[in-house]
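Deliverable D4.2, example record:
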Amino acid sequence: MNRDPNPIDASKIDVRDLLNAQTGRISWTELQRHFAAGVVLVVASDLDLIDVAARVIEDSREQVKDWMEAGRLARAETAHARAWEAAQAEFWTVVAAPWVLVQEIREPARQGGNP
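Output generated by the structure prediction step:
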């Protein structure tokens, strides 16, 4: 029998490290199918995307409920989609199945007329 001489101990894998490694930047065009499926959660820009995803995975219901009641975590709505389409938005994204958590990337406004 072939046994891996260095098996990975899943109990020692930190969920935040795993989520961080799976975080990526995507465009609105790539996000549209997930929006259509109703699985996009919008994370407020002042929250840490990885921490929120970890709390969702860990089923931290009270914390998630608090964020939702405060409007800091919400299901994406048609108004979001319209704004994202108009802006051709880009996002930091991580999957916390079945959810796709997103934070819109907002580039800082440029000062003056030069790029």
